[in-house]
Amino acid sequence: MSYVNPDPDPRLSTGLEPGGGVPPGETPPAESSMPEAGPQDLLSNPAKGWAKGPMALILAVVVIFAVGLLGYALALIY
Q1: How far apart are the C-alpha atoms of 2 and 19, rounded to whole Å?
Q2: Is there a contact between 16 and 22 (Cβ–Cβ < 8 Å)?
Q3: Which residues cross the membrane (predicted)?
């Protein structure tokens, strides 16, 4: 990986006085971005969403609870 200096080169920037000052009425040069900031490898990020196993387990518990609640309600009625 190579290092990129985020500061502009004063010799190549227009509108600068000797010594790096900006004369009145001039806009100073913009900051450059840092291209090496951020994740190094996009593949190292974890996958988004639920895995199939935990989701199936949660759904099974919900279905068993719903069937039990329905059975209890029907037992109270009859």
Answers
A1: 28
A2: yes
A3: 55-77
